[in-house]
């Protein structure tokens, strides 16, 4: 094993969004042996900073479900795949025509900018994007879809993200990737972008073979990564589609599932 790729929410983090002492010790033990520990998340850097110290994340991170790689210490961008503005506009107009009341937001500028439509902040919570809704402002839909996006966010005040996901697939559009992370919204990235695609690019940069990668995840947006890695590990309690994509299933995030696997592989007593 040369690289550990781990999802955060529902996987590495417990139900209080914390890194347990046992999990931190396992990550430290891996790093002490020269193993890269890479967060692979739907979050942006702002959401990583809240836990970076607890997890000792100081190197590369994959954000927006693999859309871009950023170095958490010096801010370098290894790559960034953006969804074209024309694709965003087409998608938003088609989906809004079939589902009234949708609200949209766009992640831009290396994940630092969050451009939300009027009304989005009113239904958002701090935990949704690790941003205070008061800082989200509000602009017209035209402005939201006027520029390329690292991640396009779609939500509804009442409908579940899974309903939006099914509705989007039923439109039979192309040119993008859509997924669910367990957050209260649908997430759309550039065509071909998944956690697996981002991880493959990072591993190529680091000179690491996929067979030397262990990946952990719990949600639909982790499926491709679990299939791609040499060892894919699903969290206990994950949906069947996630467990079926993995090579094995560990215990839950509240039972140090990630740590248990790392300890076993490193033969830590």
Radius of gyration: 18 Å
Helix/strand class: alpha/beta
- The residue fraction in helices comes out at 25-40%
Major sheet description: 5 strands, parallel
Please tally the β strands and state the result.
13
Q: How many separate structural domains?
A: 2
Offer a quick outline of the entry.
By secondary structure, the chain is an alpha/beta fold.
Could you outline the blueprint of secondary structure elements for this entry?
Layout: E1 3-6, H1 8-12, H2 21-32, E2 36-39, H3 45-55, E3 60-63, E4 68-71, E5 77-80, H4 85-98, E6 103-108, E7 113-116, H5 120-123, H6 126-129, H7 141-144, E8 151-155, H8 161-170, E9 176-179, E10 186-190, H9 195-206, E11 213-217, H10 223-228, E12 231-234, H11 240-245, E13 248-249, H12 257-266
Parallel strand pairs: 1-2, 1-11, 11-12, 12-13
Antiparallel strand pairs: 3-4, 4-5, 6-7, 6-8, 8-10, 9-10
EC number: 3.1.3.23
Protein name: Sugar phosphatase YidA
GO molecular function, one term: magnesium ion binding
């Amino acid at each position: 094993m040369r690289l550990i790729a781990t999802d955060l929410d529902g996987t590495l983090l417990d139900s209080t969004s914390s890194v347990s002492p046992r999990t931190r010790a396992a990550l430290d033990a891996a790093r002490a042996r020269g193993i890269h520990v890479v967060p692979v998340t739907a979050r942006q850097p702002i959401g990583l900073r809240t836990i970076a110290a607890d997890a000792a994340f100081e190197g590369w991170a994959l954000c927006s479900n693999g859309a871009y790689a950023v170095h958490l210490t010096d801010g370098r961008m290894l790559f960034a795949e953006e969804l074209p503005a024309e694709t965003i506009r087409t998608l938003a107009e088609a989906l809004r025509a079939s589902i009234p009341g949708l609200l949209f937001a766009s992640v831009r500028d290396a994940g630092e900018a969050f451009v939300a439509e009027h009304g989005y902040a009113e239904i958002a919570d701090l935990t949704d994007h690790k941003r205070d809704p008061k800082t989200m402002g509000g602009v017209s839909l035209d402005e939201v879809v006027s520029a390329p996006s690292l991640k396009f966010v779609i939500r509804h005040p009442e409908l579940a993200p899974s309903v939006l996901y099914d509705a989007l697939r039923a439109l039979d559009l192309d040119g993008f990737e859509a997924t669910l992370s367990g957050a209260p919204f649908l997430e759309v990235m550039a065509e071909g972008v998944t956690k697996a695609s981002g991880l493959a690019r990072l591993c190529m940069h680091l000179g690491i073979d996929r067979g030397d990668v262990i990946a952990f995840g719990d949600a639909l947006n982790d499926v491709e990564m679990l299939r791609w890695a040499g060892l894919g590990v699903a969290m206990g309690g994950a949906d069947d589609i996630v467990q079926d994509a993995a090579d094995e299933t560990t215990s839950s995030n509240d039972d140090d599932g990630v740590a248990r696997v790392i300890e076993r592989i490193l033969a830590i007593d």
